[in-house]
Amino acid sequence: MKITWSRFWLLRCLVLSICCTVIGQTYTLRDALLKAANNNSDIKTEEIKLGYTKADLASARMRPNLLLNQQFLQLMDRQFMPDPSKPFARENHQVWYQLTKPMQLGRQHHKRVELARQGGETRTQEW
Fold first, then answer.
1. What one-character DSSP code corresponds to residue 106?
2. What percent of the chain has pLDDT over 90?
3. How many CB atoms neighbour CB 92 within 10 A?
4. How far apart are CA 43 and CA 20, in angstroms?
5. Strand partners, 70
6. Are 29 and 59 contacting, i.e. CB atoms less than 8 angstroms apart?
7. CB 116: neighbour CB atoms within 10 A?
8. Alpha-carbon distances of 76 from 28, 73, 117, rounded to whole Å
9. pTM to 2 decimals?
């Protein structure tokens, strides 16, 4: 059977109409593009990367937490112990606690936020 141009175009239109009608649903061009965009794995990957960028920016905006330190010194040389028969007595050790806050000098916090924001802009430009 020889395929003429008219049969070719008729066959092409038939295939396109079948592709656009899936299980009795007809899609407009806009709906078909939205469905294709939602099912595209590359676009989903980029959306996940944008989520990471937002998380990086949120983390950069956070201030550092306070640090609680505990230090314990035990006297081990018996000749300096008040009572050598009790090496683990209260008199033979010291315990102290410190609450410290890390300092951010030279606009370090501002620079960290700007760096995270630039990373996000780079990722959105790639997308």
1. T
2. 9
3. 19
4. 22
5. 97
6. no
7. 19
8. 83, 9, 53
9. 0.45
